[in-house]
Design a protein that fits this description.
single chain; four-stranded antiparallel sheet; six-stranded mixed sheet; 2 domains; about 230 residues; alpha/beta; globular
Length: about 230
């Protein structure tokens, strides 16, 4: 579904991600893990068209999207749930969700998308008229993920979903991704919590200082000496 080749990304002509290559296959969950500042968020910004690559190429469903702007990528089926949730705090749950459905022109499609996210996150249905800013961190993260699903994406990319959450809420949000996967949506996550992210994913990429350090099936990465020493404290 997604093929990234020798991607170089940066800011103000200064690269911070170097020659990154990765693949995401249909209906997979793939994790990019690494410490804070490794370049994980920058990669997602590049993949979603928020920053222009300085080198390399990106293909989505066989089509070159390296220079495709963000709004067109959403219509093509790529949805990006940003770090820090970035909700519209004064708007209600339902209003936030409908903002995520702006690419859907058919009212029946919007209703179907809304029904789907309410089924996955019943708490949002119960509080659909409540302002997003009154939610807890875990509830806001669920709302952000649900908003990302409202465009009916083929590929859902989620940036640091555990950021600022208590451990019990991290587990709850991780469990929700298992349900999302069951719907057939392909998921790419970037995450600092290496163990939790790899346990959830089929495959993973370990990122350090803007470069892929190691890649492979998640089980193998969890047993890797490099991952154990650098990220799991073993």
């Amino acid at each position: 579904m997604l093929k990234v080749s020798n991607l170089v990304l940066g800011y103000d002509n200064v690269p911070v991600v170097f020659d990154v290559s990765l693949e995401v296959k249909e209906k997979e969950v793939v994790s990019i893990v690494g410490s804070n500042g490794a370049g994980k968020t920058t990669i997602l910004r590049g993949l979603s068209g928020l920053i222009r690559p300085m080198g390399g190429s990106i293909e989505f469903l066989g089509q070159d999207i390296t220079k495709t702007p963000a709004h067109k990528l959403v219509k093509m089926g790529i949805s990006h749930v940003p770090e820090g949730r970035q909700l519209f705090g004064k708007l209600t749950v339902r209003e936030n969700l409908m903002m995520g459905a702006y690419t859907l022109k058919d009212e029946a499609a919007k209703k179907d998308a809304l029904d789907q996210v309410y089924h996955l996150f019943p708490r949002l249905k119960e509080r659909e008229d409540q302002a997003a800013e009154t939610f807890s961190g875990g509830e806001q993260q669920m709302l952000a993920i649900a908003r990302g699903m409202m465009s009916k994406p083929k590929l859902l990319m989620i940036d640091e979903m555990s950021l600022g959450l208590a451990p019990v809420l991290v587990d709850r949000v991780m469990d929700s991704l298992k349900e999302i996967r069951a719907t057939g949506i392909t998921v790419l996550i970037v995450e600092q919590k290496v163990k939790e992210a790899l346990e959830l994913a089929d495959r993973g990429y370990v990122l350090a200082t803007g470069r892929i350090l190691q890649e492979g099936p998640s089980r193998e990465l969890l047993e890797s000496d490099i991952v154990k020493k650098a990220y799991l404290g073993m």
